[in-house]
Design a protein that fits this description.
The chain is of the alpha+beta class. It is built from ten helices and 17 strands. The longest helix is centred in the N-terminal third of the chain and has 23 residues. The protein starts with a helix and ends with a helix.
C-alpha cells in the first residue's frame, strides 16, 4: 500500500513539473513600432534576439511582430537600422512598456578622406572578404516567402510558403537544400499562363550579386554617401552604367561586410544582419520582375482590352524569421526545385496559418491583396479556406 501511495505521489509531482515546464516554454508574441525622432516609421529595421539567432524585420511603416518562447523574456532584443544608433532592451522590459515604441536616434558618420579615396578599392575588398564577413558553414534559415502574379498591373494569383533552407553562405551559387513545410494559395484569376521554370527562391539567389559576383568594369563607381550600421561606419558605393541602371552597396568599414544591396534590375533589395558571432546572413528581400505577353483574341475579350499585349510581373517578398547554426538541429529535406512555386503540391494546415505569427503586412502585401480581393469581391481568407485542402 505504501509503495502504491509513493507511486501516486511520484506521478502527481511529475505531472505538476511537466505542466510547469510546458507553461514556461509556451509561445508568445511581441509587437511594436520602430520610429525616428520625427515619429516616422523606419522600414526594414532589423529586429533580433542574437543569443537565440531569431528575429524579423519591420515593414514600411516601421511595425513588427515576432513569435518567441516565454523563456526568452530575460534575453535582449536589439533593433538596428542603417543610419541609426542601435537600441537594445531586455524583452521583459519591452513587454512592460506602456507604448511598445522604440525610437532610434540618427547616427551621422564622419569619415576621413582616407576612407573615401577609392570607391572601387573598397568594393573589391568587400567582395574579397565575403567569406570572412558572412556565415560560410552549413546553417538553416526559416523563411516566409510570398509571390504575387500580376497582370495589367493587378494581382491575380498569390502563393505563400513557410520553408526551411540549408545554406553555406554567398560563396556558393545557390542554396544546398530547400524544404517547403507549409503553403497556401489564393484563387487563380490569371488570364495568361506564365510560370517560372524553377522555384522562386532559386531565382532570388541568381540575382544576388554577393553570390554571382560583379563585373566591375561594366560600371562607373562612385561614393554617394556615408552612414552607419550597428555602431559601424558605412560607405555607400554606387555603380552606374551608360545605358542606365545602378547597383548600390552599403559597406561597413570595420570588416568590409556588405549590409545592403540595391539593384535597379528588378528593383531588388537584399538586407543582411549579424548573428550572435557578428557574421552576416540574409534578413529581408523583395523584387519585381516585369514583362509583356501577346494576347489571343479570346484573352482580349476576357480582359476587356483591344491591346495586343499585356503587362505581366511577379512581385516577391521574403522574411527570414529564424537561424539555426547547430548541426544536430539542422534538418532540411530537399524538395523538387524544377517547378513553379504555384504548381507545388504543398501541405496546407489551417491551424498552422491561424497560429503563425507573420510580420506585419507591408504596403506591397496590402496593395496586392486588395487587388486580388477586388476581382470578385472574395476575401483572401475565404479563398484560402476554400481552395487549400
Amino acid at each position: 500500500m505504501k509503495k502504491q501511495k509513493a507511486f501516486i505521489i511520484f506521478l502527481l509531482v511529475f505531472f505538476v513539473f511537466a505542466c510547469s515546464v510546458n507553461s514556461q516554454s509556451k509561445s508568445i508574441y511581441i509587437e511594436g513600432s520602430v520610429m525616428d525622432v520625427f515619429e516616422t516609421g523606419i522600414p526594414y529595421a532589423s529586429i533580433s534576439i542574437p543569443s537565440k539567432n531569431k528575429g524579423s524585420s519591420t515593414n514600411e511603416e516601421g511595425n513588427f511582430k515576432l513569435s518567441i518562447s516565454s523563456n526568452y523574456l530575460s534575453e535582449t532584443l536589439i533593433i538596428s537600422s542603417i543610419g541609426y544608433k542601435s537600441f537594445s532592451i531586455k524583452i521583459e522590459d519591452f513587454v512592460n512598456l506602456k507604448e511598445n515604441v522604440i525610437v532610434l536616434e540618427e547616427d551621422v558618420a564622419e569619415l576621413s578622406e582616407i576612407a573615401v579615396l577609392s570607391p572601387i578599392a573598397h568594393l573589391k575588398k568587400a567582395f574579397k572578404n565575403i567569406k570572412k564577413t558572412t556565415i560560410n558553414k552549413p546553417h538553416q534559415l526559416n523563411v516566409l516567402y510570398r509571390r504575387f502574379s500580376v497582370e495589367d498591373n493587378k494581382a491575380r494569383f498569390f502563393v505563400e510558403q513557410y520553408l526551411k533552407i540549408l545554406d553555406k553562405g554567398p560563396n556558393t551559387e545557390t542554396f544546398n537544400k530547400l524544404e517547403v513545410l507549409e503553403g497556401r494559395k489564393s484563387a487563380d484569376y490569371r488570364i495568361v499562363s506564365m510560370k517560372q521554370k524553377l522555384h522562386a527562391m532559386v531565382f532570388m539567389t541568381r540575382f544576388n550579386t554577393l553570390r554571382t559576383g560583379v563585373n566591375f568594369k561594366k560600371y562607373t563607381w562612385s561614393k554617394i554617401g556615408d552612414t552607419t550600421y550597428d555602431g559601424e561606419d558605412v560607405i555607400i558605393i554606387e555603380g552606374s552604367r551608360w545605358k542606365g541602371g545602378y547597383l548600390r552597396f552599403y559597406i561597413g568599414l570595420d570588416n568590409y561586410g556588405i549590409f545592403k544591396i540595391e539593384n535597379s534590375i528588378l528593383n531588388s533589395v537584399y538586407i543582411y544582419k549579424k548573428n550572435s558571432a557578428g557574421k552576416l546572413y540574409l534578413s529581408y528581400h523583395n523584387r519585381e520582375w516585369k514583362s509583356k505577353r501577346k494576347l489571343s483574341e479570346y484573352q482580349k475579350k476576357i480582359i476587356g482590352k483591344n491591346s495586343s499585349k499585356i503587362d505581366l510581373s511577379y512581385r516577391h517578398e521574403m522574411f527570414v524569421l529564424g537561424l539555426e547554426m547547430d548541426k544536430k538541429k539542422i534538418k532540411v529535406k530537399n524538395n523538387n526545385l524544377d517547378i513553379d512555386i504555384g504548381d507545388m503540391d504543398v501541405p496546407y494546415s489551417a491551424s498552422f496559418w491561424n497560429n503563425f505569427t507573420a510580420p506585419p503586412a507591408t504596403k506591397f502585401y496590402k496593395k496586392s491583396v486588395r487587388e486580388l480581393e477586388s476581382i470578385y469581391g472574395v476575401s483572401i481568407d475565404v479563398q484560402f479556406k476554400t481552395l487549400n485542402k
